Every structure is written in structure tokens, then in C-alpha cells.
Amino acid sequence: LRSTNLLERENQELRRRxxxxxxxxxxxxxxxxxxAVLLDRHEGWSVxxxxxxxxxxxxxxxxxxxxxxxx
Length: 71
Known about the structure:
The protein is mainly alpha-helical and 71 residues long. It is built from three helices and no strands.
């Protein structure tokens, strides 16, 4: 279901952008617009979605293990 929600959200965003223009002069202009929208969304997602940072996790894990060993 998670992937379906993601795809539905992408389709909704494409439809929203498409409704603004209404009439496209040719098929290439549609592909250009939708490609630009998808590229922008991809770049935003790949930068913002870094929820879990492994280096911070491993550093804190090592710190906790060292505290336990010292005690």
C-alpha cells in the first residue's frame, strides 16, 4: 500500500500541474513539463528523505557500548 500511495501522490501532482496549462501545443511539450515536474520531485525527495543517518547511529552505539564496559 505504501508504494500505491506514493504513486497516487505523484499522479495527483502531475494532474495538478497539467490542469494549469489545459492546452498543450504538442506531445513534446507535455513530456517536457511532466518530466521536469518528476525530476524536481525526485531531487526534492532524494535530498529531504534522509531520515536515518548510519554514521550518527554507529557513533552513538559505540558511545553506549563504551559506557557499559566502563561501568
